[in-house]
Amino acid sequence: MERDRRPAFKLLLSCPGGLSVSQVSVIFDESYDRIPHPDTDLENSIAEIWDQRLKHNSSLYNGKKFRYAGHIWHGEIVASDQVPHACLLLGLTDYRYMIGAFYGDMEFK
Q: Which partner for 93 in 23, 25, 67, 71 could form a disulfide, CB atoms 3.0-4.6 Å apart?
């Protein structure tokens, strides 16, 4: 079996020199929250997967978590007094959905 050669993550924004606190902002809005899928069977399968995982690991618990919806990068320097700025777009989701949606088809170990 050939290993999947895709990286384990995707770099969404690169700032090799880093950013100061004043160069980062967040827009936290419900418009970026998780939207339930219109397919109720899919939504129900996420709940079933979560329930199965709970049976195998009783220390799991559901809780709110941030959902990354994107970013706005202001890196174009037009005037000498301008500095780069990153604005993160965040909403809410929950751990149950993340586990059910992203890890649902993986074997329990």
A: 67
Whole-number Å distance between alpha carbons of 27 and 4: 35
Strand partners, 67: 91
pLDDT digits (tens, 9 = 90+) for 41-64: 888 888 888 888 889 888 988 999
| Structure tokens, 79 | 């005037």
What's the pTM value of the predicted model, to 2 decimals?
Answer: 0.72
Supply φ then ψ for residue 71, to 5 degrees.
-150, 160
Cα(15)–Cα(29) distance, integer angstroms:
25
Beta partners for residue 26, in sequence order = 88
Residue matched to tokens 């000498």: 80
Q: Where are the alpha helices (DSSP H) in the chain?
A: 40-56, 95-102
